[in-house]
Amino acid sequence: MTHSSKTKYRHESNTKVTLKTVPKVRLYVERREEQEHWFVNIGHVTERGRWRTEPHAHPGYGQIIFVRSGNGVMNLEGSSVPFEAPCVLLLPTECVHGLDYENDVDRWVVTIEVSYLTQIYARLHEFIQLWSLPRVIAMPSPSGTATEFFSLITQLAQELESKAFGHVVGAEALLTQLFLMLVRQTRLDQPEDGGASRNETCLAERYRELIEQHYWQNLQLQDYASMMGVSVVQLRAACAAATRQSPTKMIHARIITEAKRNLIFGEQPIEQIAFGLGFSDAAYFTRFFRREVGEAPSQFRLTAREQPQRAK
Q: How far, in Å, CA of 244 to CA of 235, rounded?
C-alpha cells in the first residue's frame, strides 16, 4: 500500500511547516576558511569538571565520540542512556542528543561530513547498518580494543595535521579502519542473502536522502522512483536488500522519528505537530502514530517526559 491512501496527509501544499523544537548546531569546524575542503575533523576535549550540552542535532555531519576516560549520561532522542569509558558514542546525522559528562572526562571527537559518509557506505553493507542508529559501543580494555582504537584516532589526527603528500588517501584508509573496528565491535543483524550489491546500497542510500528532503510532502513511491530514474520494483528490491525494509516503511519510520522529537522536545499542541508533518488533521495523525508506536501521541509525550533526564 502507499502511505498516502491510508494515513491521509494533506496534499495541497509543498511548503513545510517548520516545528522549531531541536537546535541545529553548526560545528566549530565550519569556522575554517571556506576554501579549505575537509571531510573529517578530529577534536580532543579535556575540560575538567562537569560539562553539559542541551539536546541538539548536527545537520550534515556524523560524529564518533571516543570516551577514553570518565562517564556520563547521553540524552538520546529523549531517553537517558548512561555510558562509561572506554566506549564510543556513535551519532548519525540529525540524531538528537545531549551530553552530560561527569568530572574529568577525556574524549576525542571525530566529525565526518555526510557526503563522505555516503561514499564510504558503498564499500561495505555493514557500514550502512552501523550508522543506521545511534549507538553506545563498549571498548573493553582487557581485549586491547580501546588501545587499538585510540591509536587509530591519533594516527588519523596526525595524518590530517601533517598535510603530507597523500594525506587524504591516508586519512581515508585510517577512517575506514575505524569504521571496520566499530562494525566488528557491534552486534549487527546479518542479512540472510549475503548482503546487497553496491548498486542496491547506493540506491537505498539515495532514497534515504530523498526521504529526508520530502518525507512531509506525502509523495508516492512512483514520485521517488522517478526522481531517482528507476522503477518502483527496482526501488523496492534495493531497499529490501540494503535495509530489509520496504520503501513505505522507511518513510513511515522517518515521520515517526520527527513526530517523537516534536512530542518530547517541543511544546506545540498535537494538532500543530500533525499539520507540520503533513497530516490533514490530528485524528489521522493519532491513528497513524498509534499503529506505528503502539500508543497515542499524547500518552507517548506524557510517558517520555516522566522519565528521568539523567541517571542518578
A: 12
How many C-beta atoms surround the C-beta of residue 48 within 10 A? 9
According to DSSP, residue 281 is labeled S
Query: What are the tens digits of pLDDT across the range 112-128?
Result: 998 888 888 878 878 88
Q: Are residues 179 and 33 in the same domain?
A: yes
Is 130 buried (19+), middle (13-18) or exposed (0-12) by CB count in 10 A?
buried
Residues 102, 55: contact at Cβ < 8 Å?
no
Over residues 279-288, the pLDDT tens digits come to 988 999 999 9
Q: Are residues 231 and 275 in the same domain?
A: yes
pLDDT at site 169? 92
Residue 76's domain comprises 29-185
Quote the cell numbers at residue 13: 501544499
pLDDT tens for 211-268 read: 999 999 989 999 999 999 999 999 999 999 888 889 999 999 999 999 999 999 888 9
How many structural domains does the chain have? Answer: 2
CATH at 38: 2.60.120.280
More confident residue, 30 or 218: 218
Three-class DSSP category at 21: coil
Q: Tell me how far apart the alpha carbons of residues 1 and 210 are, in angstroms, rounded to a whole number.
A: 19
CB 63 within 8 A of CB 57: no
CATH number of the domain enclosing 269: 1.10.10.60
Question: How buried is 1 (Cβ within 10 angstroms: 0-12 exposed, 13-18 middle, 19+ buried)?
Answer: exposed
Q: Distance (Å, rounded) from C-alpha 72 to C-alpha 187?
A: 23
Mean residue pLDDT of the chain comes to 83
Q: What angle do the packed helices 247-265 and 221-228 form, to 10 degrees?
A: 110
Q: Which helix (H) or strand (E) holds 279?
A: none
Q: What is the tens place of the pLDDT at every residue in 65-88?
A: 999 999 999 999 888 999 999 999
- pLDDT for the residue numbered 79: 86
Task: Go through the chain and tell me how many residues it has.
Answer: 312
